[in-house]
Amino acid sequence: MEKIDVRDRIAKRVAQELTPNTLVNLGIGMPTLVAKYVDPSQGILFQSENGMIGIGMDIPNESNLDPDISNAAGQPVTALPEVTYFDSALSFSIIRGGHVSASVLGALEVDQQGNLANWIIPGKMVPGMGGAMDLVTGAKKVIIAMEHCDKRGNPKILDNCTLPLTAVAAVDLIITELAVIEVTRDGLVLLEISDDTTIDLVQAKTAAPLIIYNTPKVF
Amino acid sequence: MQLKPIISSQQAAAKLANNQTIMIGGFMTVGTPEKIIAAIADARVHDLTIICNDTGLPNKGIGVLIHNQQAKKIIASHIGLNPETGTQMNQHTLEVTLVPQGTLVEQIRSAGAGLGGVLTKTGLGTLVEEGKDIICRNGQNYIIEDPLFADVALIKASIVDKAGNCIFKKTTKNFNPVMATAATTVIVQAESIVEIGEVEADQFMLPGTFVDFIVEE
Questions:
Q1: B199 at A interface, C-beta within 8 A
Q2: Mean pLDDT of B56-73
Q3: How does pLDDT run across B176-212, given as a tens digit for each residue?
């Protein structure tokens, strides 16, 4: 499967997890694709931690580009008619205060306790945590949207994270191109698998035991 | 009537001294006072500690001061879009302290608001809590984060009247109004300067009392 298809498949499946008429934060990168698959009639509003609720679905063009409107990656975006803007202090009151119903982020590693690592690879890549630590601490539901394995094919879902953590026991749901996995007190529960894989294959690519209560649905 | 002095960007840069701690507003260069930054670059002031959300892009926004190696320390939430920051950090020519974005803004806000710091769950169980006190309140643990002050705050506003009252359009707000409360000297770069009374008072987002100098963009 092409990389672009993988990303779209994940984004499409994440979109189904969002609750109508709620406030959602989409992280930088692949999670921003989720907006493409959300039905506008569902009344889902997207928050951007740099200070905006009501990011538009349209990509700005020459006629409506406003340099004063950007997302958390600094990219120009459009705004819905009901948009509001606010400073970073209020933005993080919204985030930490539990007013965001779902936070969708990428990950370097996730483990069976729901620990998340996505801000630093010591000595190699140090982008910083940005708003991620606040988002996963404050959002009611934390959804990880990521490819199942890293570029070398190594599992990213582990028994214990090896990289420095972004947050402890914060992740609720993991959605990859192969599976939908819920983090529970007992461990990782395999809820769904994609139509081009098998339970055994998903387990082989996951470095933590997968619990199966019911036959996983196919997505 | 208390009018705020309108100064040039060069005069603004001259208010900075080597080894000072400064705050610079903006988010990935949006709402960043780039004209003042250009003047600081020309003034060659160095060994600055810069408190900012991010270090902009390579040689753009706050990235200009990174490129010119005018900072000795950065306190920020994100440096990923400016690889020069990471390179200088790995070469140990620049000290970088990474802080969760929500914690960073509250540290600045608490300084400006006269509070002794903030309690937050953000960062519990991570590298962020190292060396800090953890306090338990009502059965919940929190990290105690100290207030963050600066000698000078450099902010950008869309509209500023001659009394220093500020409007920040759309997502240019970000850290700007908060930083204006937490520094000894506050200099605002104004996209446009208007007469007092020209703008409906209800529109202002930051009282001019926080502003010391205005630089016209």
A1: no
A2: 97
A3: 999 999 999 999 999 999 999 999 999 999 999 999 9
Number of domain units in chain B:
1
Cβ-defined contact of A68 to B170 (cutoff 8 Å): yes
Class of domain A3-218: alpha beta
pLDDT confidence of residue A1: 60
pLDDT higher than threshold 70 for residue A3: no
| pLDDT at residue number A2 | 64
State pLDDT tens for residues A130-165. Answer: 999 999 999 999 999 999 999 999 999 999 999 999
Which residues in chain A are closer than 8 Å to B123, comparing Cβ atoms?
A: 133, 137
The minimal CB distance from A70 to the residues B30, B54, B96 is found for: B30
Which entry of A49, A62, A82, A182 is annotated as an active-site residue?
A49
Domain that holds residue B23: 6-116+150-216
**Residue A49: active-site member:** yes
Question: Which stretches of chain A sit within 8 Å of chain B by CB?
Answer: 48-52, 66-70, 72-74, 79, 85-89, 91-92, 95-96, 119-120, 123, 125-134, 137-138, 164-168
- Tell me the C-alpha distance between B49 and B67, whole Å: 15
Residue B205 sits in a domain whose CATH number is 3.40.1080.10
In a domain, B134, yes or no: no
In a domain, B1, yes or no: no
Q: What is the pLDDT of residue A203?
A: 98
Which residues of chain A does B171 touch, with a Cβ-Cβ cutoff of 8 Å? 48, 50-52, 68-70, 85
Q: Where are the domains of chain A?
A: 3-218
Mean pLDDT of chain A: 95
**ipTM given for this complex:** 0.96
| Structure confidence at residue A62 (pLDDT) | 87
Which of B84, B122, B168, B176 should one mutate to test binding to chain A, selecting the residue with the greatest count of A CBs within 10 A? B122
